[in-house]
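Thread title: Can someone regenerate the structure for this chain?

I was given the following input by a collaborator and told the matching structure tokens would be attached. They weren't. Posting the sequence so someone can regenerate them.
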Amino acid sequence: MARIGAKAPNLQVSTWVQGRPTNIDKEKGNVIVVEVFQVNCPGCFMYGLPEAIDLYEKYHDKGVTVLGMATAFEDYDKNTLENLQKLLTTGEVIGETHKALAQYGQLKNGGKLPYKIPFPVAMDLLKKETGELTESKVMDFIEANVPDFKSYSEKDRQVLIARVKEYLKHKEYSAKTFEEYAMRGTPTSLVIDKKGNLRHNLFGATGYLENVVQELLSE
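Best answer:
Regenerated them for you:
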């Protein structure tokens, strides 16, 4: 698992959909920001991606590498490679993303995204889930994602175990980069320093991304 302060593992990529293929080990010497999103994620397109694009426009020639990664931990019928390719080539958005952007008047030209993503974008490596759901799989998932599980009360442990079982029962794929970095959802911004160490794993619209990058550029 990726840890704050430790070497950032390379992104596990199924394909680079836009831009030149690269990875974390090839970008050392730069501050690296990986903007992780899902195609069917309204918040990613209203907050996460615009913030990453703004960062790219300000700093891409000042020692900052910005990369995009589409992932899928839910809605597997919508968060697909095909829909990502359509988004990047035509600007077409789908599902909840389309619904939310339309509601707030943020679509143009017959329902297209009003901006283009200017940096390289990859698709996370998805592996089909196989085998039976065992108690061991449930506990492995909890240990990887809930480090303080042992401090929970017995009642809270049982509630969490039941929720994890229900989630894993409907989990069709494992998104390798998403899981290796123990992300909590999307949008998430991974920030890596010039030496290749993971420094921040920012979930949601924090408004803190540019400050973080400025601090790392000054090191």
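Residues 42-59 form the longest helix (18 residues).
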